[in-house]
Amino acid sequence: MVQEGKKDFKKLEEKVARIKDLKEKVEKLVELGKFYFVNEKYDEAIGKFKEAIEINGNNAEIYYNLGVVYESKNLREEATQMYMKALELNPNHKLASKHLEKIVGK
Length: 106
Known about the structure:
The chain is mainly alpha-helical.
């Protein structure tokens, strides 16, 4: 079972690496980051979200997802920064606002 999971990750990584269209690449990096997150591979998830930010640093959803990972790792300051950035890019991002309130207690 563990070996199958490793193969799945590797296949996904290879597939994302071949994508040339930047918008599609960002979408797949975010998907891969979420996949790593739900499999509790937090450092790998952070890496994928950061890769996506390098391509498109104006996407609130990426910062929100990165905040969720940091929050899960109990990195409150980093999570707060990511939620604030998500809200800077999209002031109506309800989930980022909700998570930020939970962390800072406002």
